[in-house]
């Protein structure tokens, strides 16, 4: 049984590491304090446990389907969504000027963790709506903002991100959906696939943010525009109007997230789907990346969510399952006493806590980018956020594959049986390194734009902060043993960056063959740094943490540095291996 309040103490702690006190001191958040944040998290835990979690297994079994050109969702989902909207959860971190509560994004990340943990399929719907809100707020004109944002912010209307086509997966340059000017609007026609929550009966309207190409647009990604295409047109008085020409053709039958309708959408089967330009013509990719980066961070959060739920289930099973004997204990024991089970649980626990700290750090950086009073602080936060987004998305979601698999392993044969629930977490988690950009795409973004793009300056600044933590560890007698492994790991990252900057100009394949290993290298070391910071925080004089929490945090940090951080050596060696070892084999030899 998952207890959604169980990780609250660590969630509060991770928010503290992300600088929640500094964030709440910003003028934008003057009306909030730590007690208010506590209340929000506690209420979110209750909603997750009482409303969303009971639907998770039901939705997994029922799935969804298309009948009479409309999606049918699992029983209970529509009522849960109504409660979600009525309780104001969609508006939590949305801008106050559009009717949102205006809470810090870092708090929004923590709440998202609970939604995704309780019911990933359900939570994908409000996640995409939140991304649509961000995109329209940044790039929409005043008319679009006035027309769509208030009801997206409340959740009365939902939003989607519509990119992929049958012939154009990650290669957006190949998309062919057409947009034709029609007065102050456009008419769109084409087929899109893999559209999460592309149709459903839970919201009164759905606002699709669609990438399409004008007839006179330049070729490639430079000729892509973005359009807001509502399921129902909106009348001048703001009321819902006629049905637009966009329809679900089918839903995919997937390995996991069965209750989330992944739709094939047809735009413009007859007269053309009416859409409205977001941003400028032929500049749609920049608009879409605003939404996509928001989604990538939250997909990373999904990695924490499923991993933590898998950990809690495995821990409970290990505490209850009686089997075998161990030295020093009489009779048969619960399997949590077996060394290898403890090893697996600690691999799960330590990585979940490191992942959480990384995602909350990124959420706090968003708050600083948007609201820090000093331009230099905003620019520094933006550079670090840009660096970390592909790492949070890639490393967290890849780590979720390991953690959810370990959850099955702790259960033994019963983990392979659906009734325990452990298998669903692994099935649901498998999509995470794929959608919103595969790990390879995250690696290319990380290496190409975020490292080579500024010759490693932002990354070296991060490494400088890590070295300050190493110095603090050496000054702390009880934590000094953590300094050497972290120092060695930081050196591996530094060496790898120097190698890449030197190798890339002479070998065009070097960035591509090294990218995922370098991303995983930094993610692993980032986790070690944050766990070390956590250990320092709980050991500080007057920190105020209870003894059991502080001791567990220090022990978990030590385990991470001994059992997870050594992986950095392998990632670094693989990253700087000869690109020819990857590229020289003939296609026919695979």
Write the CATH fold name of the domain at 8-64 and 73-139 and 147-154.
Answer: Butyryl-Coa Dehydrogenase, subunit A, domain 1
Q: Percent of residues in beta strands?
A: 5-15%
Low-confidence stretches: none
The CATH class label of the domain at 8-64 and 73-139 and 147-154 is Mainly Alpha
Quaternary state of the chains: single chain
Biggest β-sheet: strands ordered side by side in the sheet? 4-5-12-7-6
Query: Which overall shape is indicated by the principal axes computed on the Cα atoms?
Result: globular
Beta strand count: 12
Write up what this structure looks like.
Among the domains are: 8-64 and 73-139 and 147-154, Acyl-CoA dehydrogenase/oxidase, N-terminal domain (Butyryl-Coa Dehydrogenase, subunit A, domain 1, Orthogonal Bundle), CATH 1.10.540.10; 157-283, Butyryl-CoA Dehydrogenase, subunit A, domain 2; 455-581. Helix content is 55%, strand content 12%. The protein has helices at 8-17, 20-24, 34-52, 56-62, 77-86, 105-118, 120-139, 142-154, 284-320, 339-371, 375-411, 422-429, 439-451, 457-474, 483-503, 510-539, 547-564, 567-575, 580-583, and strands at 65-67, 70-72, 157-162, 178-182, 185-196, 205-214, 224-230, 232-234, 240-243, 246-251, 262-267, 273-278. A five-stranded mixed β-barrel has the order 4-5-12-7-6. A hairpin with a 2-residue loop joins β4 (178-182) and β5 (185-196).
């Amino acid at each position: 049984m998952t207890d959604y309040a169980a990780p609250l103490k660590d969630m509060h702690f991770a928010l503290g590491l992300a600088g929640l006190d500094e964030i709440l001191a910003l003028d934008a958040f003057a009306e909030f304090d730590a007690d208010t944040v506590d209340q929000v998290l506690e209420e979110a835990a209750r909603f997750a446990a009482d409303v969303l979690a009971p639907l998770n297994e039901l939705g997994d079994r029922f799935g969804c389907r298309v009948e009479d050109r409309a999606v049918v969702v699992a029983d209970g989902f529509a009522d849960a969504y109504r409660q979600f909207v009525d309780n104001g959860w969609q508006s939590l971190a949305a801008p106050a000027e559009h009717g949102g509560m205006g809470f810090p994004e870092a708090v929004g990340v923590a709440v998202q963790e609970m939604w995704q943990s309780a019911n990933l399929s359900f939570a994908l719907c409000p996640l995409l709506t939140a991304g649509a809100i961000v995109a329209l707020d940044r790039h929409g004109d005043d008319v679009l903002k006035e027309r769509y944002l208030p009801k997206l912010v409340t959740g009365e209307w939902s939003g989607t991100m519509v990119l992929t086509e049958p012939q154009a997966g990650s290669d957006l340059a190949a998309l062919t959906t057409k947009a034709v000017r029609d007065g102050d609007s456009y008419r769109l026609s084409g087929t899109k696939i893999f559209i999460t929550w592309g149709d459903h009966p839970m919201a009164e309207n759905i606002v699709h943010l669609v990438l399409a190409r004008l007839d006179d647009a330049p070729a490639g990604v430079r000729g892509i525009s973005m359009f807001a295409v509502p399921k129902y047109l909106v009348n001048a008085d703001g009321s819902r109007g006629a049905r637009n020409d966009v329809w679900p053709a089918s839903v995919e039958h997937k390995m996991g997230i069965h209750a989330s309708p992944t739709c094939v959408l047809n735009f413009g089967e007859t007269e053309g789907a009416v859409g409205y330009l977001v941003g400028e013509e032929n500049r749609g990719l920049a608009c879409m990346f605003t939404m996509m980066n928001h989604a990538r961070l939250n997909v990373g959060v999904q990695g924490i969510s499923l991993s933590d739920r898998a950990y809690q289930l495995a821990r409970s099973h290990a505490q209850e399952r009686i089997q075998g004997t161990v030295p020093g204990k009489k009779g048969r024991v619960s399997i949590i006493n077996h060394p290898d089970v403890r090893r697996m649980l600690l691999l799960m626990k330590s990585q979940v806590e490191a992942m959480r700290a990384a995602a909350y750090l990124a959420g706090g950086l968003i708050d600083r980018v948007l609201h820090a009073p000093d331009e230099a602080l905003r620019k520094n936060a933006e550079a670090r956020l840009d660096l970390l987004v592909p790492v949070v998305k890639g490393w967290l979601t890849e780590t979720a594959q390991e953690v959810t698999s370990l959850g099955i392993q702790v259960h033994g044969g019963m983990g392979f049986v659906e009734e325990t629930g452990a298998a669903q977490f692994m099935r649901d988690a498998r999509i995470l390194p794929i959608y919103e950009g595969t790990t390879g795409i995250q690696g290319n973004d990380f290496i190409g734009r975020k490292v080579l793009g500024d010759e490693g300056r932002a990354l070296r600044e991060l490494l400088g902060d890590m070295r300050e933590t190493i110095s603090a560890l050496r000054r702390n007698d009880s934590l000094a043993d953590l300094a050497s492994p972290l120092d060695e790991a930081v050196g591996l990252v530094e060496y790898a960056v120097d190698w890449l900057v030197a190798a890339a100009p002479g070998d065009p394949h070097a960035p591509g063959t090294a990218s995922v290993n370098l991303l995983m290298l930094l993610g692993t070391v980032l986790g070690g740094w944050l766990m070390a910071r956590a250990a320092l925080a709980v050991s500080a004089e007057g920190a105020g943490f209870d003894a059991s929490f502080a001791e567990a945090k220090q022990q978990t940090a030590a385990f991470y540095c001994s059992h997870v951080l050594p992986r950095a050596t392998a990632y670094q060696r693989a990253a700087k291996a000869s690109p020819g070892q990857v590229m020289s084999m003939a296609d026919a030899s695979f």
